[in-house]
Amino acid sequence: MLTHDEIGGFWNACDQVGWPGGAILKLLLLTAQRVNEVAQMRWSELDRANRVWNLPAERAKNSRAHIVHLSDFSMEIIESLPQINGSPLVFTMNGTQPFTNLDNLKQQRVDRLMGDVPRWQIRDLRRTATTVMAEIGIAPHVADKILNHTSGQISGVAAIYNRFEYLDERKAALNALGRFIETLIGRDTGNVVPLRA
Description:
This protein is mainly alpha-helical. It has one domain (4-184): Intergrase catalytic core (hpI Integrase, Chain A). 48% of the residues lie in helices and 5% in strands. The protein has a 3-stranded antiparallel sheet. Strand 1 and strand 2 form a beta hairpin.
């Protein structure tokens, strides 16, 4: 997991690494989704008008379709991405295959640019996002829905009866996460307010 200070160094490293790897890593932190789900994102899954990413069941690790709200910060990154040769893939170098070199990119460039940071793995970005959400007051059951967990805070009989998706709460949570990350990297949003009362 990355600390607040390390998030700043991570973001700066991603800026230096650039497209496509830097953008993938940033979106992993801002959306709290799984590595392959983000790296293999399709343009057709993005509803930019409504600011959502519709992850289909066949691409989700748990085989459950998932709606991911895209914060202003996530949308800013997505809107800056090139479309390569009309490819359906968001992150591709050649138009036919998704970018898959993230581990090498992290080990050979991002880690070096970040400097003396204890060992971390790409999947720690999801853990970092979840921890930051808890820190700013996001309820655990909302974070579980964002993570597309099949079980979590709501389990057992309650999970059978509680099918509510908490879409509004998920949207607010990912917006708050995006604003908080902006402050950590030195972008003054002027309106970061933790959700905790």
